[in-house]
Amino acid sequence: MRRFSDNLVVRYLLLPLGQIVAFILGTSVVLSAFIIAAAYLFRGNVTDFDLVERVFLVLPKVLLDGITFGFVYASIALGYTMVYGVLEFINFAHSEIFMLGGVVGVLVLDFFGDRGLLPPPGDSGASQFVFLGIALLLGMLVSGGVAVAVERIAYRPLLGAPRLVPLISAIGVSFVLSDLTRLALNVGFGTFDVVIPVYGTLDQQIVIIPTLEGLLPLQIQVKSVVIIVVTIAMLIGLNYFVGGTRRGAGIRAVAQNRPVASLMGINVTSAIAITFLVGGLLGGAAGLMYGLKATRLNAFTGFLPGLRAFTAAVLGGIGNLTGALLGGLVLGVLESFAGAFLSMFTNGAFGAEYKDIVTFAILIVVLIFRPSGLLGSPVGQKA
What we know:
Blueprint lengths: L1 H40 L9 H37 L6 H21 L12 H29 L8 H26 L3 E3 L9 E5 L8 E4 H23 L1 H11 L1 H6 L4 H27 L1 E3 L4 H14 L4 H25 L9 H15 L14
Antiparallel strand pairs: 1-4, 2-3
């Protein structure tokens, strides 16, 4: 029995944690080496300051910001990957489901704040995390319920249709959800944007490395730590659910071969509904995590983060759970590097607004040479 427990700990806790650490270190080392090499290459183009010295000065902070955004994108990408792994179609409504979780979570925090329940800014008590946990849970429940309803109404009747049909339906659902959310916010709350209330120590900085000669102090916000911890917990929990539970085995069987899974006594309809439920729960958590970082959400917030998260899923290998994490980290660091260094390297000719061009150009290059993504786990063929 002890050996079995130890195997579970190794397989579903230590191994995923090891992969996360390896992905962070690998992404950081490879992309940092590329930036440093580029700094030496473009050094002669900049006369106002020493480009290499400036890169080394800000590199740790930029890298940390990129890793934080990478975890946000990875948390959203998990929902895309979960649905694609079973049905092999892209649920473009996931970006709106993610948005709903964030909006609901922020409204819950606003509800507590209006009643004076949230601790004041600077208060380091544990209650700030309790209220954040309640908002996270309610956002997840709403997003999960909406995801199940969408699957039942808009996708289940189209299971036997050509793949383009549910894809068009998903796009239509995304418009419906965003416009309904806008209507609810305008009519029910008289607002277009919802803003995360400032409370507790979530916005305070934790000093990781103090000021050293030639380097800025390396700091991280408390809320960034929360984002990373929640995303890691989501990945470990999802990895265990898919790989270590009976329901997860049924989902994997449906993903591999739906007709054969049905013949083996697996309820295919139930497995698909559970897949959407789990994807929605993950999306709801990701929405509030993104809200913590962005501080402001509205009915159309889901589009760009959803697009980037879908890109991260494709980059890592869509249908692969750990690939979603790797793709998110790579995309987040690339975006952070492009935003920070593009203007510096081009002497102001190009600014941070061009970062998406660089990021997606690199994505295209990766997919040209490795179409299945960085981890390249092929999805099983369906009969």
